[in-house]
Design a protein that fits this description.
Shape: globular
Strand content: over 45%
Number of strands: 10
Strand order of the largest sheet: 2-10-9-4-5-6
Distance between the termini: 40 Å
Helix content: under 10%
């Protein structure tokens, strides 16, 4: 079964940048469309960005378009999220999963953006 481990979250100031990483075990990663999700305190988990299995297409939530970039390295079983021009409203726990969210959730990585 695929295991997901997210990392790279931190406390940053408004306008700062972070690069999140998701390490996935198993062979299924390279065949799967992947997503980054986030969950802010008191809110439901929401989708942030999509990437196809071969990275042929990417798609973003409107509020992060132009600021976040999703990418992947199938040889290393890694998913990434480059986050630039961060805003306080980006504060959340960030998770990765396949595009059907069918794998067990990892522990997430906390991103906190101070104003």
């Amino acid at each position: 079964q695929v295991q997901l481990v997210e990392s790279g979250g931190a406390l940053v100031r408004t306008g700062g940048s972070l690069r999140l990483s998701c390490a996935a075990s198993g062979l299924a990663f390279k065949w799967s469309g992947m997503r980054w999700y986030r969950q802010a305190p008191g809110k439901e988990r929401e989708w942030v960005a999509d990437i196809s299995s071969a990275a042929g297409y990417t798609y973003y939530k409107d509020s992060v378009k132009g600021r976040f970039t999703i990418s992947r390295d199938n040889a290393a079983n890694r998913l990434y999220l480059q986050m630039d021009s961060l805003k306080p409203e980006d504060t959340a726990m960030y998770f990765c999963n396949n595009d059907g969210a069918t794998w067990p959730w990892g522990q997430g990585t906390q991103v906190t953006v101070s104003s």
